[in-house]
Amino acid sequence: MEVIAACDPSGQRPDVDAELLQVIGFITHRGAHVAYAATGTGPPLLLDVGCVHHLEAFWRHAPYRRLVRRLSRRFTVLRWDRPGFGMSDRGPADLSAEAEDALVERLADVVGGAPVAIVAAGNAGPTMVRFAAAHPERVSRLALFGTSVDARPLVPGPTGEALELLAAAVAPAIHDATAAALAAGSEPGVESWLASALEAAADVGALAGALARPAVDDTGAAAEDIRAPTMVLHRLDDAVVPRWSGRALAARIPGARFVPLDGASHLLYGGDPEPVLAALLPFLLEGADGEPSLLSQREREVAHLVTLGLTNAEIGRELSIRPRTVDAHLEHIRTKLGVNSRARIAAWSVRNQPPGAVASAR
Asked: What is the assigned CATH class of domain 2-285?
């Protein structure tokens, strides 16, 4: 295994711990060098935002980087470039179900023998559904975002005839067209960034192959065999995969939770990330070894008093602690829950506080 230096392409002094910088390494899989990055510490988590990916190009996008870093504060997050894409060996890309499943098995070995949590978005969803169904002992939790198991394309693209024209043009427009489709509903600027990232991630042939590949294979039947706790998240106005498709996916997975979210961006790292993280982090951490309650008892008390509308000074008086200590508790709570506002702390507390756990404030 080869490892190259940590990367912080923002060009600014890092505002996070050193372990949250991206470190890229390589593994050998089926004769190809596969690039991967591991960030953070904690239980292993596989994060896959789609088959067309470039570790460095995506890392330069601040919203994507923030999402990874927030997850990395609680997990060892593993991401990768498939063979034929990104920083992995270029060449013919094999995106068949058999090749995809074998790669995930190999990557799960990289983080050791412990069961992995999985977060998969878009066209990465079907592969992870199959893996969770085939290897129930290797998956602790499964979260699926903006994905489907029906026959609709999960990387939206033009018709076959239009695809040939786009790919054969003197200045191929296939990267721009794909970015425009994927970024529909996202904030301004995402489309142009994504077009450049896709161009770095895949040549014309590889991207055309990703657009033309079958979307689902036998994933629908596999969904019914999943035994890991599963959450299916979907933005209500997803401009690529409609919400009914995500709801149908959740209905096929035994015991799965369906979580509708406001917004229209199809991209996991697009739109407002706070509702995604507020739902995702508590779910992923439920039942984690050594951390069954996520927050300490004192942090739960502080969170409960936030729901009552108390200021930091009032919380300090209620709990007989200094305001500076209250500030520290709130910072720890925000980090653990992956939220950035008192309102979201209050929402989490209302959902998760056991009845009678904390007395009402005077």
From this structure: alpha beta
Q: What angle do CA 53, 56, 58 make, to 5 degrees?
A: 50
Q: Which CATH architecture has domain 297-352?
A: Orthogonal Bundle (1.10)
Identify the CA nearest to 279 among candidates 325, 193, 218, 347.
347
Residue 92 near residue 37, CB atoms below 8 Å: no
User: In this structure, what token pair is assigned to residue 146?
Assistant: 């903006």
**Phi–psi pair at 4, nearest 5 degrees:** -115, 175
Distance CA 183, CA 173 (A): 15
- Which tens digit of pLDDT belongs to each residue from 71-85? 998 899 999 999 999
What are the tens digits of pLDDT across the range 299-343?
Answer: 889 999 999 999 999 999 999 998 889 998 898 888 777 777 888
Among residues 147, 118, 280, which one has the least CA distance to residue 220? 147
8 A C-beta contact, residue 37 and residue 79? yes
Q: Which structure tokens are listed for 63?
A: 């919203």
